[in-house]
């Protein structure tokens, strides 16, 4: 909806800028030497012309520059592999990959441990998570006038 609003506001702004400009004379330049150019229709079109079209106006997709059929086949197979196999099935595979980092398992175990501690009446996180005897703190003389922020 916002894109439609932006597009409309840009169109209105463009119309206002065109109206605000002074009129500019537009001059058409014709570079043709012929005064009366006409388009000539083919004389006769038969069913053989439709069955065997001439590849005179054939544009290659870049896979094969000599054979039109090989070029079309390579184009279709490339787009099939790219879009169908890579994008569609690749996205499906990526979305349903198993949890290799065990994030779901760790979260589930955390919730189970919290529930166990709540039911047992314990603190959710033990204040003695690390044994206080294993920690060596500096003495007051070593700290001196150092400000301690807790």
Automatic annotation (TrEMBL):
Subcellular location: Mitochondrion inner membrane
Record field: transmembrane: 78-96
Keyword terms: Electron transport, Membrane, Mitochondrion, Mitochondrion inner membrane, Respiratory chain, Transit peptide, Transmembrane, Transmembrane helix, Transport
GO cellular component, one term: mitochondrial inner membrane
UniProt keyword tRNA processing, yes or no: no
Membrane topology type: Single-pass membrane protein
Domain of life the protein comes from: Eukaryota
Main location: mitochondrion
Function summary: Accessory subunit of the mitochondrial membrane respiratory chain NADH dehydrogenase (Complex I), that is believed not to be involved in catalysis. Complex I functions in the transfer of electrons from NADH to the respiratory chain. The immediate electron acceptor for the enzyme is believed to be ubiquinone.
Assembly and binders: Complex I is composed of 45 different subunits. Interacts with BCAP31.
Family affiliation: Belongs to the complex I NDUFB11 subunit family.
The protein's name in its UniProt record: NADH dehydrogenase [ubiquinone] 1 beta subcomplex subunit 11, mitochondrial
Source organism per UniProt: Drosophila ananassae (Fruit fly)
Lineage, broadest ranks: Eukaryota, Metazoa, Ecdysozoa, Arthropoda, Hexapoda
């Amino acid at each position: 909806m916002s894109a439609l609003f932006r597009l409309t506001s840009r169109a209105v702004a463009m119309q206002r800028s065109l109206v605000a400009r002074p009129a500019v004379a537009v001059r058409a330049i014709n570079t043709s030497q012929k005064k009366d150019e006409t388009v000539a229709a083919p004389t006769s079109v038969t069913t053989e012309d439709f069955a065997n079209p001439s590849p005179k106006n054939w544009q290659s997709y870049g896979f094969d520059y000599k054979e039109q059929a090989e070029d079309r086949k390579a184009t279709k197979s490339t787009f099939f592999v790219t879009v169908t196999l890579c994008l569609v099935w690749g996205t499906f595979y990526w979305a349903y990959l198993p949890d290799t980092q065990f994030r779901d398992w760790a979260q589930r175990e955390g919730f189970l441990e919290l529930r166990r501690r709540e039911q047992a009446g314990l603190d959710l996180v033990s204040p003695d998570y690390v044994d206080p005897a294993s920690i060596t703190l500096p003495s007051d003389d070593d700290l001196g006038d150092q400000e301690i922020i807790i």
